[in-house]
């Protein structure tokens, strides 16, 4: 029987390994079996797969045959702000130093990411809950996303398992919860890597975001087509963080959206 969803993590990531162990115990995952030389666990229709290397290079995961892949990962932050985050994968430019392929986006899962963020907001206890912009690999046609907690270096050993238990609620919501309420599926354009404004509107029920293109890639206007196409649900609209983008770039974006028949909203 094929798994409806896979939870994937790397044993090279100590935080993700600990989170996976807690999930396995709490959700009653069975003992390890072999898949391509890797450990695979099962609970009902959900499998968990332990990679030996970073998941950002695991383009081969399309071959496992499933409806959804959720990557558990340690979150890194130069500012040291503890956050629960979610994001789609892909490279907006010709750079692919962290997996995937240049100018290529994976298939985003907007409803699943929104389920995670809404669940985390309910239990976060004041810890930041935020979308990250689309970045890094792997490049998959299977709908997927990363859900993260970190940075690990500033989380005490005493707090780590409590925070992982909260993360667990978000993963359960993605797998078993009701479809979250929202008005429109959207592509986000503009703003910084941490999309606080888009997150705010999503948590208010206005949008479920698929891909988010940060302001430093807005001149890659040809990628907007992929941002529309590479989503489990075709976006209804582009939401543009208006003041973060100069007028020349905005005009190019608006022209591209018009050619694609996609409306936009300013925020």
Automatic annotation (TrEMBL):
Pfam families: tRNA_deacylase. Its EC number is 3.1.-.-. One of its GO terms (molecular function) is D-aminoacyl-tRNA deacylase activity. One of its GO terms (biological process) is D-amino acid catabolic process. InterPro entries: Deacylase_DtdA_archaea (IPR018033), DtdA (IPR007508). Keywords: Hydrolase, Metal-binding, Zinc. The keyword RNA-binding does not apply. PANTHER family: D-AMINOACYL-TRNA DEACYLASE (PTHR34667:SF1). This is D-aminoacyl-tRNA deacylase. It comes from mine drainage metagenome.
């Amino acid at each position: 029987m094929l798994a409806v969803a896979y939870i994937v993590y790397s044993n090279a990531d100590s935080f993700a390994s600990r989170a996976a162990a807690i999930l396995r115990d709490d959700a009653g995952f069975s003992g390890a079996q072999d898949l391509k030389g890797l450990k695979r666990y099962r609970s009902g229709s959900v499998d968990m797969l332990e990679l030996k290397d970073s998941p950002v290079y695991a383009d081969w995961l399309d071959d496992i045959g499933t409806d959804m892949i959720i990557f558990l990962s340690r979150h890194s932050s130069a500012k040291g702000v503890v956050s629960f985050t979610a994001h789609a994968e892909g490279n907006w430019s010709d750079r692919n130093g962290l997996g995937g392929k240049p100018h290529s986006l994976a298939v985003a899962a907007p409803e699943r990411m929104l389920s995670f963020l809404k669940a985390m907001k309910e239990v976060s206890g004041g810890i930041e809950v935020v979308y990250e912009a689309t970045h890094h690999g792997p490049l998959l046609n299977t709908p997927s996303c990363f859900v993260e907690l970190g940075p690990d270096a500033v989380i005490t050993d005493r707090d780590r398992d409590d925070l992982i238990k909260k993360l667990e609620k978000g993963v359960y919501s993605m797998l078993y919860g009701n479809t979250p309420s929202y008005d429109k599926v959207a592509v986000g354009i503009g703003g910084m890597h941490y999309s606080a404004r888009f997150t705010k509107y999503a948590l208010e029920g206005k949008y479920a975001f698929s891909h988010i293109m940060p302001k430093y890639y807005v001149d890659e206007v040809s990628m907007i087509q992929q941002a529309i196409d590479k989503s489990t649900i075709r976006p209804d609209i582009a939401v543009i963080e208006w003041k973060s983008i100069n007028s020349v770039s905005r005009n190019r974006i608006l022209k591209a959206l018009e050619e694609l028949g996609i409306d936009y909203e300013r925020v």
